[in-house]
Amino acid sequence: MSRKTVLVIVLFLAAIAYILYKLIFAGKSSVAGLKVVSTPVAGIYLDEKFIGKTPLDSRHPAGSFVIKLVPDDSQSSASVWQDKITLNPSTLTYIKKELGQSELTTSGEVITLDKIGDDEIEISVSSTPDAASVSIDGLEKGATPINIPISEGEHDITVTSTGFIGRTVRVKAVPDYRLNVDFQLSLSGEQLETPTPTPETDTQTGEGDQLSKPYVLVNETPTGFLRVRFDASISATEVGQLKPGDKVPYLDEKSGWIKIIYAEGKEGWISGRYADKVE
């Protein structure tokens, strides 16, 4: 299967961006940098306010926003991409997106810096889909999401997942900062031709609307299903699967995971990234 994975190389030198923006933003601690590139060209909206078209290199007040990329070509079949981002003071947020016909065929990266101090250097890697394999400079480090110390300097971060097109980004880590890289992988052509089958799971969704609140609603996922695990960890055993639209009883939550009843008498944990608690 590894031969079916194509690596897409992109470049982002976080150290250079950090130094540049520190110089520009000296005395302006509430200002953040935003750089966005996309294929095809797209209009960019922050909290529904149009701020320009890709490629864009601009400054904005620090804070949390909903960013949206809308393909500029009316004849394009590319889909709209939207997500929540946090613009951190005096640093650059870098977004690169290759917009596909749907979320499943859209790929790219969102790269940010978080100040942690004490000369520490860390890297945090997340992905859609989750539980993707992470390699740093050719050495396997685990599965997403992952947060580990890293040495100063340039590193190649590669994320791969069966049935998806892998991506590699080159970054430069700097002291006092955590480098966050959020990958979005697109389905490979073979997977698009042959959709991933979803095993039947005895979920309690037939009368979902009658479930007592709180309950959990499963959202759309890149794979077309959501894994249920024995514990709140991506390394825990998979015990079942849920489909988008499924509604199941809510039990508990911790660290981004939600505990649910996925079948009669059976409990498990799902990623809160692809599910909402309804109260």
TrEMBL record:
Domain SH3b: 213-279
Region (Disordered): 190-209
InterPro entries tied to this protein: PEGA (IPR013229), SH3-like_bac-type (IPR003646)
Pfam family, one: PEGA
Residues making up the signal peptide according to the UniProt record: none
Protein name (record): SH3b domain-containing protein
Protein's organism: Candidatus Gottesmanbacteria bacterium RIFCSPHIGHO2_01_FULL_40_15
